[in-house]
Specification:
This protein has about 500 residues and is of the alpha/beta class. It contains 16 helices and 18 strands.
Length: about 500
């Protein structure tokens, strides 16, 4: 697929729209018209002062449309709107999220509502972005649920993320940098020791910057690949080094049931962990085999019941809509069984085929993944079932190549929302990350500016170049000094 664009200012969003409608095509963007030939799939987008012109030539099918640029639109929006309309006509398909391709649609909705009011925000989403009423309603609900959590934030508040990038095995859909313990078990102990060092250094930076910890989250990977003593070491190091006075929650992703046992859960309980995740993804044994899991659906249920018996009273369970071998009926069966367990939180993901995932290279799965109507029905059922069961959506984010162009949505019973998820997914405040693969997002409390500080991705890199992690953390102080100087 070749995309010819007349001006470089709209190449990013134009490319995103190409991937939205044609997620499996290899995309090449060119600005020289001579390069846009001798291909069986060519898209041309041309911006002029009063109009935008888009043509699509694919395997002998051809359309060309002119669209008048609306007064007040910036150039990028005029062109991307024209591309979206042309693609929608060519494919006879209007995605539920319209032309929105970003990760954080709720964040965008809240920004519009604060600037223009809710009525105008609704109009913009429906008439300018072509978002369906169903998806707009999700944005409204989430914005309402999030408000009590975001209203209580102070300018110097932040959240802490601790990365444990190890898993028992790598799931077929996974694109994260987690390492299977089958091959990398020897890295775990030195990794934990280095992580403790980074946590201690980060706490010093935070104290010198004058920040206040309000939520903490240990994710991965699967944190419970660590043994009970290692878990206690990491959590206690956080509690020892950071001022926990204002920390309202501390989540640990227990994650896969094949890593959960009583000793680890007791360790988490002893450390005062307030929220855990036990993530089945599915409760269909054949689908678990398809995704490379080495546990059964009954193992999930047993792990959940064990956690309940140890008085864990805020548990999240993750599900994925669109896994290979899942049908609407089996997805409904899974969700109904999860709801019957009565967890406080349920997160429903839509399968996203990432290039680095094993599934991306499976042609049979790609064919299955193209079934938009199946994904839509799964997500539609989850929305209906969870609302009826007393859950409300409280955060949402999107990824590229999601089955049916859907979304990932976190659901919670009243007053059990994970504030960390709210703050990080909608980029409400600073999140500082420790560990391999962690990304610190430093949010200017006085503007929409957001700066990222990246840790090294892989555990072996992290260990070999560990001193760089400490140096990079010093950027937190520098950025906050800049933020505060501009304020005054």
């Amino acid at each position: 697929m070749i995309l010819y664009i007349s001006h470089s200012f709209f190449d990013y969003e134009a490319g995103n729209l190409c991937r939205l409608f044609f997620p499996y095509e290899k995309l090449k963007t060119v600005t020289d018209i001579s390069e846009a030939k001798d291909d069986n799939f060519i898209v041309k987008a041309v911006y002029e002062e009063n109009k935008s012109t888009v043509s699509i030539d694919k395997d002998g099918e051809y359309i060309c449309r002119e669209f008048e640029n609306e007064t007040g639109d910036d150039k990028e929006y005029s062109v991307t709107r024209a591309i979206f309309k042309c693609f929608s006509e060519f494919c006879s398909y209007i995605p539920d999220w319209g032309m929105l391709t970003g990760i954080h649609p709720v964040k965008l909705y809240i920004q519009h509502a604060e600037e223009f009011g809710k009525i105008e925000a609704d109009r913009i989403f429906k008439e300018k972005y072509f978002v369906s009423e169903e998806k707009l309603e999700i944005c409204r609900k989430i914005a309402s649920v999030q408000k009590p959590s975001t209203d209580k934030l102070e300018d110097n508040d932040f959240s802490l993320y601790i990365s444990i990038p190890f898993c028992p095995t790598r799931c077929s859909y996974c694109s994260f940098v987690s390492q299977s313990i089958e091959k990398h078990k020897k890295l775990i102990e030195p990794y934990v020791e280095a992580l403790l060092d980074e946590i201690e250094h980060t706490a010093k930076v935070v104290k010198e910057t004058g920040l206040r910890l309000v939520t903490a989250y240990m994710g991965g990977g699967t944190p419970t690949t660590l043994n009970a003593e290692q878990l206690k070491k990491v959590i206690n190091k956080v509690k020892e080094c950071f001022d926990m006075t204002y920390c309202r929650e501390f989540t640990v992703e227990a994650g896969r049931p094949d890593t959960i046992d009583e000793s680890k859960l007791l360790a988490l309980k002893e450390c005062g962990i307030s929220r855990i995740s036990i993530n089945p993804q599915t409760l269909q044994d054949n689908v678990l085999v398809n995704i490379g899991r080495k546990h059964s659906a009954q193992d999930v249920i047993d792990a959940f019941k064990l956690a309940r018996s140890l008085d864990f009273n805020n548990i999240n369970m993750d599900l994925i809509a669109g896994l290979e071998g899942d049908t609407l009926e089996t997805f409904i069966d899974t969700l109904d069984k999860v709801v019957a367990l009565n967890p406080e939180n349920v997160t429903v993901h839509s399968l996203a085929l990432k290039r680095s995932a094993f599934l991306f290279h499976n042609e049979d799965v790609k064919s299955y993944h193209k079934n938009k109507s199946l994904a839509e029905k799964m997500i539609e059922y989850s929305f209906k079932k969870l609302l009826e069961s007393g859950y409300m959506p409280y955060y949402l984010y999107r990824q590229s190549r999601m089955i049916g162009n859907q979304e990932n949505t976190g659901w919670a019973k009243i007053s059990t929302e994970c504030e960390y998820n709210i703050y990080t997914m909608d980029e409400t405040h600073t999140v500082i990350a420790c560990g391999a693969g962690g990304v610190s997002k430093i949010k200017d409390p006085y503007s929409n500016r957001l700066e990222r500080i990246f840790n090294l991705k892989y555990p072996n890199e992290y260990l070999l170049r560990f001193d760089e992690m400490k140096i990079r953390k010093e950027e937190v102080k520098i950025l906050y000094e800049q933020f505060r100087q501009r304020l005054h």
